[in-house]
Automatic annotation (TrEMBL):
Family matches, as SUPFAM superfamilies: TPR-like (SSF48452)
Location within or outside the cell: Cytoplasm, Cytoskeleton
GO MF annotation list: kinesin binding
Source species of the chain: Stomoxys calcitrans
Annotated spans, Disordered: 129-178
GO CC annotations on file: cytoplasm; kinesin complex; microtubule
InterPro entries: Kinesin_light, Kinesin_light_repeat, TPR-like_helical_dom_sf, TPR_rpt
Keywords: Coiled coil, Cytoplasm, Cytoskeleton, Microtubule, Motor protein, Repeat, TPR repeat
Protein name: Kinesin light chain
Amino acid sequence: MTQMTQDEIISNTKTVLQGLEALRVEHASLVSGIGDTVKDDEKTYIIKKNIDHIDLGLSEAQVMMALSCHLQNVEAEKQKLKTQVRRLHQENAWLRDELANTQQKFQSSEQLVAQLEEEKKHLEFMTSIKKYDDNQEQEDVNEKPRPDPVVELFPDDDNDDRNNTSPTPPSQFSNQSSGYEIPARLRTLHNLVIQYASQGRYEVAVPLCKQALEDLEKTSGHDHPDVATMLNILALVYRDQNKYKEAANLLNDALSIRGKTLGENHPAVAATLNNLAVLYGKRGKYKDAEPLCKRALEIREKVLGKDHPDVAKQLNNLALLCQNQGKYDEVEKYYQRALEIYESKLGPDDPNVAKTKNNLASCYLKQGKYAEAEVLYKQVLTRAHEKEFGAIDSKNKPIWQVAEEREEHKYDNRENTPYGEYGGWHKAAKVDSPTVTTTLKNLGALYRRQGMFEAAETLEDCALRSKKEALDIAKQNKKLQK
């Protein structure tokens, strides 16, 4: 016999149940039809016995039906429970994923909070320094406000008609056949205009320049070197007021005059080209500025020689223009050459050496060459320390060595030694110059990028001390002068 399914068993049981019911009814009718004779007692007994068997079969069939119904209910409940288990498994897996994502977000948030706390400390330090900047009388190339202290901005202390004692120094023209020399009255006027401009008194400086320019054009004509000099001075005043279009027009006019009257290869032409390049650089027109800067470099190399300090200054400007365009190979080449000229002609202690090393370090930082930048910063600080305190030894260490020692032993000494006295680092912080202060801040920022927060805070604190001391000395000198 083939194995029957549960449904088939139930169906057959129902059929048997119906048959038994019919048979019981038939037997019951037979019993009622037999008379009460003795002869029929045996038949009646047999029929009643059969009826009992039929009742038993009916009871068993009903039990089987009830059991089948119960099994169906159990199976339905089983399927329901299985469905619930599957749903719980799915919910559990989803909750595990959510927990993992939440834990990951929590860890990221903790890291971000730690980073923001360090940035907050650094910004508080930079803010504390900024209040002294307004009273600082001397600015460095890297002292411009910026979001990241290691980012180099285009300088404005390399324009020849502004930073020298005279608009265009007479020494630049002594070997020229033209024999042109800036008149003494224009030098005096230049210094006066610069003084007014530095005080923000443009309402005095601009009319003064315009009046002098008008007088020169009346007496000497428009195409005269003195007029070109005056145009340069007025252009630089306009540039300070962010009037770049007016300044560019004046510088182009001055360039044309100087080219016609002094010759295309005159140092004064190079000075105007440089000023125009700086102006374009400030406006972000680096591609327009670069050829002007290169032409100024060619003129200075031809007239002054390839190893003249003015050539190095022009190389610095050209390097900054290329750096803003991402031409880092050229930047390194220009800075390294400028550094060689300064060191050979002006000596290792000349301020331009330290400035150029700072600029070259900035180039390295932009390329992610942190080790090379760190070496240059340490060279600047070490040389400044040696000039101030003598040869380096175990008891006479430059500030960067002290900072790194404090980083290394930050957990060992803080418990027993006050922060301000450990290692005598305050002595190493007394070297004071704008370039050293800038180097302290830049190396501190580099340390901070490397996670050396103790060393970074040491250098930043030194920079703050230097500015405070310089400001105090300036105030004392003013009181004495009064």
